[in-house]
Fold this protein.
Amino acid sequence: MRRYHLTTFGCQMNSHDSERIKGMLESLGLGEATSKEDADLVVFNTCTIREKPDTKLSAYLGDAGARKRENPDLVIAVGGCFAEAQQERIFDLYPQVDVAFGPGSIPHLGDWVGVGGEGVARGRFGTHEHFAGHLPPHRERAAHAWVQVSMGCNSTCSYCIVPAVRGREQSRRPGDIIAEVTRLAFDGVREITLLGQNVNSWGRDLSPDIRTEFGELLRACDAVDGIERIRFTSPHPKDFREPVIAAMAECDAVCEHIHLPLQSGSTRILKAMRRTYSRERYLTLAARLREAIPDLALGTDVIVGFPGETEADFAETLEVVEGVRYDSAFTFIYSPRRGTDAAVMADQIPEPLKHERLERLVEVVQRIAAEKNAERVGNIEQVLVEGPSRTDPTLLRGRTRRNTTVLFPGVGEAGNLVDVTIEGSTSTTLRGSIASAVPA
């Protein structure tokens, strides 16, 4: 049996795409290799939103090229957003690559997996006419599934390359989404995450006979028997409307957790980023969410070092982080992307200053997260078991409805719901012991 190995970079959408790539390859008779060294086909599903994944990919491709010189039959495939951004240029940058495909061309990979040796390098890009939902998935977590509700993005954030590589926003038909969720529930999935580049603008581009909005989709998913938890990512603050907040508050399965990207706490910088909301509007939304949804956990994204960011702008970001008190945050140094407006803006921030600001931000984020998690000690939290701990096989790992990782001793199958008494915490995890089991 020929074997493949897939490496995934980047966001949750890439994780979803990788599960479809794996499922498709396995449906064609390939097995999964435990390492790149044991594979006949190596696939890299790439991200290009920042410079760091590009640099990491270059190192991986260098290693794959060395193995290909030893084994000319090795097939190297590069997919995802980096491939879409580079397109045919990727074969000049990396001659060892046999196949390249953009996020909208995943179904075509199956046509090319026989390429290798002296075969002609092939690529396909920009075909965003099909969702990947029809491809067989290879789920990494038996009880959890990604469900793609839209692809592409109509926003024009000045720093972001995603619209260029994933195309204009397209909403998946509601009937197709609910049919997939129903199949997943039948297969034993208990938690779903609805995915889109701007998930809460879903539905606005659909034909008038089926047009609806994201709050109604949440309610329809909540009505599917067997689905215990519903999450969604990523919403844009500008599109977070009252019907979505009401659905979150009223639907039993919708979790008390939301990832609400901030990017900057300075209205001036937000305007330069073209985020289309102000600091004040964001804070009002965060307060409204917390008012409507008791015990809500809020996560966010923050970029430091955007062109023109002054010390005063950065101080405003720290003020928002302190004021909102996020439960978690992804923090990034601004990275210029070729083809974006921000890449050619004046007043680019020196790298040492970016790193210094990031360190200050991370210190605040981690302190607040540690304080928030410490507040959970003594509580009994419902945990969905994901499997054994990655570092200690005597512990189980799972997540609360608020999306916090919990480690606890015990033996149990993935997918079980367990009540855990929280006995300790860090900035990223909770620890505890089983209080009682909830019947599956």
